[in-house]
Amino acid sequence: MSTFTAPKGTYDLLPTVNSAAYLAIRERLAAPLRRAGYGYVETPVFEDVKLFSRGVGESTDIVTKEMFTLARRPESSEDLALRPEGTASVVRATLEANLHKLGNLPVKLWYSGNFYRYERPQKGRYRQFSQVGAEALGAEDPALDAELIILADDAFRSLGLREYKLLLNSLGDQQCRPVYRAALVEFLAGLDLDEDTRRRAGINPLRVLDDKREAVQAQLVDAPKLRDYLCEECKAYDEKVRELLTAAGVAFVDDPKLVRGLDYYTRTTFEFVHGGLGSQSAIGGGGRYDGLSEMLGGPALPSVGWGLGVDRTFLALEAEGIELDLPATTEVYAVALGEEAKNVLFAKTVELRRAGVATDLAFGVKSIKNAMKSANRSGARFALIAGDRDLAEGVVQLKDMESGEQTPVSLEALVTTLKEKQL
Ligand code: AMP
Predict the structure, then answer these.
(1) Binding-site residues for L-histidine, please?
(2) What positions does the entry give for L-histidine binding (predicted)?
(3) DSSP string of 1-51, one letter each residue
(4) Is pTM beyond 0.90 here?
């Protein structure tokens, strides 16, 4: 133990605990995107604070309470913040590089990285968390919304997850939402709400629907539903998304209270929730944000995207008792008895690695007993053991760590023998 521990709300990924699983989860969540024409994008972990206040929204907790802002340097005029989410940065990068003018529309991008929110930490809610995300920019097509939802569902399924639900809603558009908004404002005015909530209702009444407090939810039972206010175009769009999901075998549940309550979020909105995670149940979410590009000074660029939470996906796998089939980190572990043998096994270790066999070697001066303990702990299927006598005969001992069986193998044949055993 040192004087220091990881900062509150963060944790280390370690080979002994979870780091291999995290790498595999990121890979698997991204794999369906790679097969669907999405290109990898990486943006800075910090951006102009205003990108987030505009791109995430002034009325959201993320912007008002949870942003990690960086102290401004005396010589700088930039106010920077650690990114709380990925969409605003990806839209910014797309506009900056003119991707929407250079190639096919929609521009399809995916990313993987860490995000930062100054939240009250608890299980499943951290101040640094990891997401795999996808954005498709520049097309208004229900097939695109359906594609993204199907890709997220495929990603979760490929990990073996089953105990989750897809919640689906439509937020309407610039035509029908203002009518709904007016009805909601009138309804909210008649409720007994605290000042904070009232202020939030003033900026963005839809967000009040998202309030997690029971006392608030109890008053919202009879709130007008957006679904009843959708215009014909939005209804048809929503119907088409549902039709495509159903045809692809993706089940969903209507959730009229599901909002991403900002003016530039439109139509399709969705969340994947897992049954085994307690209060922090969302393992991923997203939706259509047709107005965001314009909010950031760009042209109209109707878009849709999602972010899937890697930390919570890990917890969901745990909750379902799913063990990922992870590749062995060490297949072969070499133990040399003596200086000369060490030279030979070191050379063989290098050769085996170059041939694609994951090999490790006992380092430092160790007794044979300790070296064999290390071999055991490494999880290797085979140990290679060699002493002076073996070398004189041109062999090494190959020990099957499971059966304990030990056979001499000639030095020349070693790489081919182990390559064959790899299968
Ligand atoms: P959001 O941008 O809030 O819709 O987040 C998308 C996904 O990221 C959520 O569904 C969660 O899986 C994950 N996520 C968001 N915030 C956190 C957090 N503080 N800790 C862990 N995971 C998070």
Answers:
(1) 85-87, 117, 131, 135, 260, 264-265
(2) 85-87, 117, 131, 135, 260, 264-265
(3) --S--PPTT-----TTTTHHHHHHHHHHHHHHHHTTTPEE----SEEEHHH
(4) yes
Q: In angstroms, what is the span from residue 75 Cα to ligand 1's centroid?
A: 35
Cβ–ligand 1 distance for 260 under 6 Å, the answer no
Cα–Cα–Cα angle for 52, 58, 60, nearest 5°? 90
Q: Which residues of the chain register pLDDT less than 50?
A: none
CATH number at residue 128: 3.30.930.10
Ligand 1: nearest atom to the Cα of 127 = 19
pLDDT at residue 44, as a whole number? 98
Which of 280, 296, 319 terminates a domain? The answer is 319
Q: What pLDDT sits at residue 11?
A: 97
Pocket of ligand 1 contains residue 156 by CB under 6 Å: no
**Relative orientation angle of helices 414-422 and 339-354, to the nearest 10 degrees:** 50
Determine the 3-state secondary structure of 253 from DSSP: strand
Both 309 and 395 in one domain: the answer is: no
The amino acid that residue 157 corresponds to is R
- Please give the structure tokens belonging to residue 367: 């007794």
Which residue has a Cα nearest atom 18 of ligand 1? 125
Residue finishing a domain among 274, 298, 319: 319
Cα-to-centroid distance, 282 and ligand 1 (Å): 7
For 379, the domain range is 332-420
Phi, psi of 133 (to 5 degrees): -130, 160
pLDDT digits (tens, 9 = 90+) for 104-150: 999 999 999 999 999 999 999 999 999 999 999 999 999 999 999 99
